[in-house]
Structures are given as C-alpha cells and as structure tokens.
Amino acid sequence: MVNLKDKVQAEYENIDKLIDELPAKDELPFLQFLELAGVATILHNFYNGIENILKLSLKEKNVPFPNGASWHKELLKLSVNHKIITEATMIKLGEYLAFRHFFNHSYALDLYAEKLEPLVENIRGIYKDFQKDISSYLAKLK
Questions:
Q1: Which of 29, 51, 70, 92 would disulfide-bridge 113, Cβ 3.0–4.6 Å?
Q2: pLDDT of residue 69
Q3: How many CB atoms are closer than 10 A to CB 46?
Q4: CA 46 to chain centre
Q5: CATH of the domain at 80
Q6: How are the residues of the chain apportioned to helix, strand and coil, as percentages rounded to the nearest 5?
Q7: Residue 112: burial class (beta carbons within 10 Å; 0-12, 13-18, 19+)
Q8: What is the pLDDT of residues 29-72, one digit of tens each?
Q9: Cβ contacts of residue 5 below 8 Å, gap of 6+?
Q10: Which three-class secondary structure string do you get for 93-105?
Q11: 82 φ, ψ to 5°?
Q12: Is the model's pLDDT at 1 over the cut of 70?
C-alpha cells in the first residue's frame, strides 16, 4: 500500500513539471492568447495539486472532508487547524484559490498578462513554503 509520503511525492513531481513549464513573468505580456490560456491552466493545475495534498493529509488524519459551496476555502482552514500548513501559507495560497475560482467561472478572453504576473512571479516561493509546511507535518507523523 502506498503511504502518504509517497502520494505527496507523486503530487510534487506533477507540480514540479508544471512549474518548469511556466514562462518568466517578463515574458507574459508578449504571449499570444492561447499561450496565456496555457499559463492560466498551469496555475489552475498547480492549485489543484496543492488541494490534492491537503485532502490526502486530512484523510490520513480521518478528518471529515468539507463540502458545500465554500469547501475549497474550508479545506485551507481545516489544514491550518490540523497543523498541516501554517496560516501564513494559507494566506499566500488564497491568491491561487481566488484564481482557481476565476478560472472556473470566467472566459479565457478575460485573461490578462498583468493579472497573471504576480501569480507566476510568486509561485516558486509559495510552493517552497508549502513544501516546508508539509515536510514538517509529515515528520510529525512518524
């Protein structure tokens, strides 16, 4: 049976591949429409991977999974309450949660490079913070 650490590692591998495909923030204004849509998809997939790890971690603790219209926000709060991530990381991830909502409920025609720039610029740092939190959490499970 695959343990939590292995499942998290598999998610990290997918997230790493996604992030490696992102253009530099400075390149965004020069991208064509379809390229911007691709960047948006990568940002959306990044957040999905983060949520997958949080869901796996909560499941490991037998914490009931949130449901309802705001379950994505509740997932972050539960993850802080159960000391899987820090509140600071939750706040930073909130930008990607907001983007996830925008991505799912708008048209690609509404994508603008200047709106994606901070998400692209900050993704690596936020991902490192998240990984640090998850590493601390996994170390406590031993």
A1: 29
A2: 86
A3: 22
A4: 5
A5: 1.20.120.580
A6: 80, 0, 20
A7: exposed
A8: 999 999 999 999 999 999 999 999 999 999 999 999 888 889 99
A9: 138
A10: HHHHHHHHHHHHH
A11: -100, 15
A12: no
Characterize 58-76 residue by residue with b for buried, 16 or more Cβ atoms within 10 angstroms of its Cβ, and e for exposed.
Answer: bebeeeeebeeeeebbebb
| Exposed / middle / buried, residue 100 (Cβ in 10 Å: 0-12, 13-18, 19+) | buried
Number of domains in the chain: 1
Q: Which domain holds residue 64?
A: 4-141
> Phi/psi zone of residue 22: left (φ > 0), alpha (ψ -120 to 50 degrees), beta?
beta
Give the tokens for residue 52.
């997958």
As given in the structure block, the two tokens for residue 75 are 């997932």
Per-residue pLDDT averaged across 8-15, rounded?
98
- Structural tokens at position 83: 């000391």
Least confident range of 29-38, 57-66, 82-91, 127-136: 57-66
DSSP structure class, residue 84: S
Six-digit token string for 57:
């971690």
pTM for the complete prediction?
0.95
CA distances from 96 to 72, 92, 114 (A): 11, 8, 15
Tell me if residue 32 falls in helix, strand or coil. Answer: coil
